[in-house]
Amino acid sequence: MSDEQANALQLAAYNQNWETFRSLNNLMWQIPLIAMTLTGGLWFGVSTVKDTPYFAAGLLFLAGCGNIGLMLTLHRLRYIMAQYLHWSKATYAAGHVSAPGTSWLTGNETVRRIFQALLGLAALISFVLLMVTMTANKPSQAETVGNQAIAYYDRHAVDLADSYEGISFENTHPALAQMLVGKPPLRILDIGAGTGRDAAAIALRGHHVVAVDPSAQMLKLAQSLHGDPRITWLSDALPGLAKVQGQTFDIVLLSAVWMHIPPAERAQAFRQIVALMAPNGNIYISLRMGPGDPERGIWPVDADEVGRLATVNELKVTNLGAQPDLLGRAEVSWQTLLVSRP
Predict the structure, then answer these.
(1) Do both 47 and 7 map to the same domain?
(2) What was the pLDDT predicted at 143?
(3) Is residue 128 assigned to a domain?
(4) Is residue 176 over pLDDT 70?
(5) By residue range, what is the domain housing residue 74?
(6) 268 pLDDT higher than 50
(7) What count of Cα atoms within 13 Å lies in the side-chain half-sphere of residue 263?
(8) How far is CA 313 from CA 13, 238, 337, 341, in A?
(9) pLDDT score, position 5
């Protein structure tokens, strides 16, 4: 090979290596943008899936691992770039520009270290949030004994209140609203009172309400939203209802409650409710017709089951009709039953 050919080949190699170096340099400066897009997108995703903590935990884990992966990629890229710089210096020292720096701030690795520190911080935040998410959604004592619904309402009280309080009592329970028209003050038991929307609407019509709910957070929120003195708030739950035993009520209201009673406990729960009925009292039940979800403490229900329990307790059932879900859930509808003495 002639000197001219050797020089041409060396020049071609030199140009090729510098093009590769430029590409690697561009890629290194894109890594922070990739990290911001990845982390920001996943963190935003976490903020939109509050009701699915395990999915949120997965997104946070992916964000943390993604940032660690980018840290390692950045380290490898900077190492390869350093090799190209060493080659450039050895090949053409006269044209090589070196900037070794005299302190940590001006050193060759300063930019890489800053980028890696930021990536490491983002990864750390993701993993801390992951631990917080898992700890906050760790099954409580209530969940371990089968009361998953209580734990669910405790966690999501504020979010659920935004939905429930936006729907009127009259639209939710038109038959009950009509039953109360023109009646003298009645004693009404609202089992599973939730945010207190129904209890407040009934009290506003002049009736005395005992509102019972097992969720401490729901009960606290309900009391803050509805301060009517005609409402007595109690922390209690089916099937026992220990705090209202011995009392009787003109109407016992179970709105969106029966599906939270495990099937094995329903006979006992129904007997307890019957014991709370005044001689001319009624049980007003709204049944959630739709798929069950045991993890949220929701089991399938049907009107025939309530009918059988009523027959055993020498009561009759009147079907007050069905209506679609007012929260717009296509898979859910509601059927209302009135249980009374023959």
Answers:
(1) yes
(2) 44
(3) yes
(4) yes
(5) 3-136
(6) yes
(7) 7
(8) 94, 17, 16, 9
(9) 74
Torsion over CA: 168, 172, 174, 177 (sign):
negative
65 to 70, 78, 122, 126, 340: CA distances (angstroms): 9, 20, 10, 9, 60
How many independent structural domains does the chain possess? 2
The answer for residues whose C-beta is within 8 angstroms of residue 199's C-beta and 6 or more apart is 190, 193, 209, 211, 222, 226, 228, 231
* 117 and 198 part of one domain: no
Q: Confirm if 70 and 30 have CB atoms less than 8 A apart.
A: no
Tell which wins on pLDDT, 307 or 46.
Answer: 307
Of all helices (H) and strands (E), which one includes residue 169?
helix 169-172
- pLDDT higher than 50, residue 144: no
256 and 132 share one domain: no
Q: Cis ω on the peptide bond leading into residue 185 (within 30° of 0)?
A: no
Spatial distance between the Cα atoms of 127 and 67, rounded to a whole number of angstroms:
11
Structure tokens at 156: 């999501």
User: Alpha-carbon distance 135 to 131, whole Å?
Assistant: 6
User: Within a domain: residue 141?
Assistant: no
| Confidence (pLDDT) at 192 | 92
Q: Mean per-residue pLDDT for 240-253?
A: 93
